Amino acid sequence: RSPLMQSNYKLFTELLSTLPKLNRNNPPVDLYQYQGFWYLPKVLEGVIQVQQQFQARPTDIIIAGWPKTGNTWLKALCFAIATRKQHNQTKNPLLTNLPHNLVPILEVEILNNPKIRETLHHSVLSTHMPYTSLPKSITTSGCKIIYICRDPKDTFVSFYHFFRRSHVLSTSAGGSITDLNSSFHDEFDLFCEGKTSAGSFWDHVLGYYKASLDRPDMFLFLKYEGLVEDPVFYVKKLARYMDIPFSVEEELEGIPEKIVKMCSFESLSGLEVNKTGKYYVHESYMLDNNSFFRKGNIGDWKNHLTPEMAKKIDEIAAERLGGFGFSF
Ligand code: A3P
């Protein structure tokens, strides 16, 4: 660490000792509550660095979403749309890179590369940070936010599998899971209560949704299910929202359809980089790229949740979000 990072780190560890803490035992990780959301310490360190250092540009496009709601796919689509004049479909960087390495997650990347904004050659960035914790430069600079959400039942199932892969046999993620059966039920309860290692899904969606009602021009609110149903429609909508609409010629050439094909689950998950590559999160934590591509289906929750579990999630969704006019 540089001297500046050392002193920041010292301040960060002091801050940690003052925050509410949740000891989880399966896996054995500690979560800390900051600005109403629970975090793993390393993620929180990144969040605080983003709050202190990150300077958004007015032309930036920020992709936001709770983990497992379709961020990887949306990043691939937005990257392809934003850089389509530089790269054609046959030599596209998406064919040799995990989308997270092309559209970095701010709070992860800033710890590896504090000058993240200066070194990026396009305007698409991403974050899992809650709306209420975003740095001022994002909320006031005029940049646009594309938010993705997904049925919470599928989100939970996807999250559980991802979480299990990153924690089984992994001490680098903070500890390993010892009892898989009870971990599914524990994780379900914690998801319902908003105490996961990614914070509360409910508060995350609600924070962005409420902000989008106040400032509709700043947000494009998308649902994973909508993207699955009509990806070409949404690719055109994304391009218009990003102020780079497809020209008549591009539409005649079928560029939106080609982008959809290149970014489809089948194409991305079949690439060598996504089958065998690793995603470096920080010095002691790596993930297999293929953990971001599991099934890519709507309704996989039916294979994992009991009817009671599904009912419980639907009830929480209705209670927490329904009153604001939001439904999945
Ligand atoms: P499943 O676990 O249900 O399969 P995130 O990118 O936010 O981490 O979300 C991961 C989810 O999106 C996983 O869902 C993953 O399989 C799915 N996914 C990844 N790439 C996709 C694509 N190109 N099209 C559709 N779904 C995709």
TrEMBL record:
It is an enzyme of class 2 (transferase). SUPFAM superfamilies: P-loop containing nucleoside triphosphate hydrolases (SSF52540). Keywords: Transferase. Residues 58-325 form the Sulfotransferase domain. Pfam families: Sulfotransfer_1 (PF00685). Its EC number is 2.8.2.-. Belongs to the sulfotransferase 1 family. This is Sulfotransferase. It comes from Penstemon smallii. The lineage of its organism: Eukaryota, Viridiplantae, Streptophyta, Embryophyta, Tracheophyta.
